[in-house]
Structure formats: structure tokens, C-alpha cells
């Protein structure tokens, strides 16, 4: 409409039309002062271009779906090894200025039901409240930092980016709480609103989504675990979106360029494929395309694994990554190895490297994690949390479930010391 007005002869523009446009612009700027810019953009677009307003997408469940692991391999990860790693990756955070990104990673690994005997370690419930209650966030960060939760006309969004006190990745807050087992009716308390729930955050994310987002890895996970069997919906910009489009977006570009050396898009694709097998959320052609992408990933990591078992950050280069190794710091090796073990735990066997390679990868990441000082683990907690989750998945369990049973049998494991096992020394003890 604005373009048409600018190109019309002045005598053809009535004073009423000019007044209407001016009024719309004034209202838009006034609203922009108090709410997020994306919401303003959508409202103006709907008014000027006649786009249909967003309609909530049905969420047919109170609890999110869970994509369960497929294997129990004590030959890859013993009970002792898993306990040693999980003890390292407990969320031993200082409650002052807790980083949302760290809390999100802790929740997706440990879950909202996690409890720890040590009162200095926040429970899953406490971590979830930090993310979903503005008052709890303010207790940690004070009032000088912008709120984590952004109130919009129809829901709640989450501040993300590199600014202090923000969630680092788009929709990571939602995906992490979803994987943690949060319920749809869980209250979400913003700075002034107390009538929102997780379900409203899901709807706001659906309204907010754009296909050209820099990161879609966590959006794919959140939508996939809440809205199936719905496979397509209309966004806040009036455009039609679908899991097919998201899957294709995940596969776009060089494999190494995604978040965490491209491994998150691999996990998200594998999750969508597993969900498609039950809920038919992808077209047959897209399922085949995504599966072929993961076959290429499998072939790359078969060729890119180093003799000691780790995968490098440039794993998409395949054999060239080993033949001409880069200066890869240990934490980047942990990222690649832990994340690959994570998606492989929910992948069918024909997408696996040979068992011997998986075993060596598990041995390397167990040794590396257990050998790190706790302070170093906490400094790079986001990466090591994936290790704990991946190894638990390979035992067909979840960290909180395993840890509670382990502590029940070994009470001393909950304290500063670690319970000694009567069995043979574990992989984690070798070469220490």
C-alpha cells in the first residue's frame, strides 16, 4: 500500500488516506516503545497488506513428546563410567547471575525432576523457575539487566543473543525446557503478566518463526515435540510453514557451518525423522532427502575419526580432517564427539559407524570429561552437558533417573567423594 501511495499522483491521494497512513505509523512507533519489534512488524503488515492474523496451532498434548534412545550398551558405557561423568556435569552453578544458556543445557540433560542431595546444587525445579519466572531471574541478575522474558500483545517471547542475561540461541529456551519435560500448562511469569503458560510461549514461537532465521535447530525440536500430527501452519507473517521447509532449511549450507560444528542440525534432523515415523510430519520425499543427508554424515564421521576415538570440529571433511589435522582445542573435540554420540543414540543402526568406532569415541569422551577439573567443566558446561546426556542415552536411560538410583546404592557419591566400585576398573580410570 505504501509503495502504491508513493507512486500515485498527489491529486489522487485523499486527505483521509494520508491521515490513515500517518495514524498507522504513529501507532506502530508508539507500540514499538513497549513491545518487541517483531510483534509490531506483524501487526502493521496485517493492517496494511490485509494478511490474515495468526491462528493458534493445536497442541494436542499436555506433556511434550519424548524421542527415546534405542540402545542399552554397557560395553560402550559402564555404570561406573556413566556415574563418573554425571558427577562431573551436575549443575553446580553459582546462583548469582546464572547464565540462562547454562541453565537451559542443564535442564535438557537433567530434566525438571532432577534432585541433588547437595543443597548447593540447584534442582531441576529451581532451574526451571529461574527461566520461567521473571522474579526468580531478577533475584539472580538484579534489575539493571533487561528481562529474559519479553511480553508481547498475545504471548511471551524470550530475549536471546550475546547480551548479558540472555538466552544465547533462538528458541533454545523453549527446546530445552521441552526436552526437560515441562508441561504445557506450566505458568510463565513475565515482568508484569502472570496469565501466560508454556503453551503460550509455543504459540508465540510459532507466530514469530521465519524461515530465514539464522538458527532453526531448536525451533525444529520444540515444534516437533509439541504440535504433531500437525505438519504445516500459518505464521505471524501470513506465510505457510511446514516441517518439510524446516528440514530443508536444516540441510542448507555447508555441514560444518551450523551451531557446534554443524552437529545440532544433525540431531534435529534425526529427531524429525523419528517423529515422522510415528506422526507422518514429513513428506516421503523430504524423509528420503533428510535420511540421505544423515547417511552422508555417517560416512564423513567414519572417515574423520582419529585413532584415539575423538571427532574433530572439521569432521565434514572426512578423511582430509585426519590427513591434515587442524589445531583443534580439546573443547571443540568434546563438542564434536559428544554431539555425534548424542544423535547416534537415537539413530537406527544403518546410520551408525561400526561399533568399534562408537566404543572408541565413548572411551575418549569419558576419559576426557572425568579428567577435567570441575571448574573447567563449569566454564564450558554447555559442551560437557551433551556428553552426560549422550552417554546416558547409550544406556537407554536419562541422567536424573540413573543418578538417583546410583546415589541410592552409593550414598557417598552425592558428597565430595566418589563411590568406589567392587568391579574391575572402568574405562574412565585407565591411564589416569
Topology readout:
Layout: H1 2-7, H2 15-34, H3 37-49, H4 79-88, H5 100-110, H6 124-132, H7 134-141, E1 149-151, E2 156-158, H8 172-179, E3 187-188, E4 196-197, H9 198-208, H10 217-226, E5 232-234, E6 240-242, H11 243-251, H12 263-279, H13 284-304, H14 319-323, H15 330-344, H16 355-371, H17 374-379, H18 381-393, H19 399-409
Antiparallel strand pairs: 1-2, 3-4, 5-6
Helix pairs in contact: 2-3, 5-6, 5-8, 5-18, 6-7, 8-10, 10-12, 11-12, 11-13, 12-13, 12-15, 15-16, 15-18
Describe what this molecule looks like in 3D.
The protein has 432 residues and is mostly helical. The chain contains 19 helices and six strands. The chain has helices spanning 2-7, 15-34, 37-49, 79-88, 100-110, 124-132, 134-141, 172-179, 198-208, 217-226, 243-251, 263-279, 284-304, 319-323, 330-344, 355-371, 374-379, 381-393, 399-409; strands at residues 149-151, 156-158, 187-188, 196-197, 232-234, 240-242. 42% of the residues are buried.
The whole-number mean of residue pLDDT values reads 86
Number of helices: 19
Name the overall outline.
globular
- Radius of gyration (CA) equals 24 Å
CA-CA gap between termini: 70 Å
Based on secondary structure, the structural category is mainly alpha
Helix content estimate = 40-55%
**Order of adjacent strands in the largest pleated sheet:** 1-2
Number of strands: 6
Query: Can you summarize the main beta sheet?
Result: 2 strands, antiparallel
The low-confidence parts are 1-11, 26-39, 416-432
Series of H and E elements: HHHHHHHEEHEEHHEEHHHHHHHHH
